[in-house]
Amino acid sequence: HEKGAAQYIGDYVFGALDGIITTFAVVSGVQGAQMSNSVVLIMGFANLLADGISMGLGNYLSLKSELEYIKKERERETWEIEHYPEGERKEIRYIFKKKRFKGKDLDRAVKVITSDKKVWVETMMLDELGLTSEDKTPVFSGLATFLAFLVAGFIPLIIFVISFFIPLVSTNLFAVSIFLTALTLFSVGAMRSFITGTNWIRSGLEMLLVGGLAATVAYWIGFFLRRIIG
């Protein structure tokens, strides 16, 4: 029910979660393979930009397709109401009968709904097809995902970028990256509770666990491949 920028909070949160998990998995894999920090930056930024663009465009195309489908179905329902009103009235009667309307109440409900074509169409869209109107814009939705992916995905790389410009900062880089990533994962995961309605602590810990698992797998894959390939 949110309007304005708030309705894109789902795009921000899920874009951020994907960004930080995938980027940190890359960092962990490179560290597991015991490769240089320059490789961390190259692989990290390549993943950050390529996957960020892919996520943003994917969200854009997904919402665009959904809106086009809803529009097509609304046009079809409108055409059916205009050309076969009696059949559509029977469907409205059936819908409200299932809602336990009876007798005069059922007749009155059908009369009220079918007296306004816009309400009639929206009722058919929701109760017959299970489709609701979507106020989000595909461009803004895709952009929100892309920006959130970039911002959150940059977190695991921050300390490596700093060490590149300030060589004195070159110890325990991976440990610092782990700490910053874990903190961000928990925070963004907790924000997810605004969408899912779950407990924010539980939501934060779940994302921390998922991100940690992905990073651990990536680290050990890098570690073993380093040993195999040499």
Explain this structure.
The chain starts with 8 loop residues before the first helix and ends with a helix. It is elongated and about 80 Å long. With 230 residues, it is mainly α. It is built from ten helices and no strands.
Question: How are the elements arranged and paired?
Answer:
Blueprint: H1 9-32, H2 37-83, H3 85-98, H4 103-114, H5 117-128, H6 138-154, H7 158-165, H8 173-191, H9 193-196, H10 200-229
Helix pairs in contact: 1-2, 1-6, 1-8, 1-10, 2-3, 2-5, 2-6, 3-4, 7-8, 8-10
Distance from N terminus to C terminus (CA atoms, Å) equals 55 Å
Q: How do the SSEs run, as a string of H and E?
A: HHHHHHHHHH
Large-scale geometry: elongated
Q: How large a portion of the residues is in β-strands, by DSSP E?
A: under 5%
Largest sheet descriptor: none
Overall pLDDT score? 85
Class by alpha and beta content: mainly alpha
Distinct helical segment count? 10
- Fraction of residues in helices? over 70%
Tell how many strands the DSSP assignment holds.
0
Rg calc: 25 Å
* Low-pLDDT windows of residues: none
Summarize the structure.
This protein has helices at 9-32, 37-83, 85-98, 103-114, 117-128, 138-154, 158-165, 173-191, 193-196, 200-229.
